[in-house]
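TL;DR need structure tokens for one chain.
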Amino acid sequence: MKTPRISPLSRLVATAVLACATAGAFAQSVRPQTVASGLDHPWSVAFLPQGGYIVTERPGRMRVVSADGKPGAPLAGVPEVAARGQGGLLDVVLDSDFARSRVLYFCFSQPGEGGNSTALARATLAADNARLQEVRVIFSQKPKFASNQHFGCRIAEARDGTLFLTLGERFSRKEDAQTLDNHHGKIVRVNKDGSVPKDNPFVNRAGALPEIWSYGHRNAQGGALAPDGTFWMHEHGPQGGDEVNVPQAGKNYGWPVITYGENYGGGRIGEGLTAKAGMEQPVHYWVPSIAPSGMAFLTSDRYGAALKGNLFVGSLKFGYVARLELDGRKVARETKFAEIGGRVRDVRQGLDGLLYVLTDEADGKLLRLVP
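>> reply
TL;DR here they are.
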């Protein structure tokens, strides 16, 4: 039988169809589906094992949202917060043993003598989901300072049971990020009772605060554990220079000595350096700034196997979720994963393996990204 002749045009069309089919097998478009609305500048979401969600609102309220999307009354027991500017009630995470203990952790801008600072608290959610009990502040950033900016405030529980907390440098105290006698512009690591892990890098260094894990950060509003258990975070640059980092014990990440950003309105920061000996380079950076907030590693295959293990980051400035494809600790490619249309404050993977997003608005929404 004679083999039919295939024209170059037909071969080109067939190749394009095959390419589209192959791409479709590895990636899917997604649409935001509203789970809950009417939230007042929501900042963080956690997923209750029996169904439903805990959501923090920046003005100082924490609510349980039912599985069918109905926000409950504000929980009793939330401490006073300094809800001004970027400050307020910020991140919340459930303890890894929450199903048994009902323990959770949250961070907030804590008022006090000298101004305010970021604090980390531990509490128990009452069985009726109506109040926080046994609330105790286990860490408070030093020193307090009168500022309404750069609180940082993302929490992650490491596999060894310690807690990482990201701390902003309070904007006008940016030089503090390079010194170890304060908590400004630092990642700290504490035990669940607030005590200091004995293997923290500065435990025995004179003049250094022992909670410090890494330093030289600006304002970190994203933090998550990678599938291999390492802690990743991202931080706001000024005008440009947002960074993704994998903070290592005792390392200096450069702010404000080195940065890929510039002063607001233009002009270099300091000597205008992007690198210096003894200071770490970011894994990834953005110029111009996307104003990142929230981040999550996808551990499910709900969007196709090719997306499993990717890192997803929200953009406050442009209202989308970015997808970072990784090659080890390098970013191989960045694409836009989902258009949200509102300021993306948090990105999390839910218990169903799908990604969820909070929008930072007066009528804020909890959205599920549906393939």
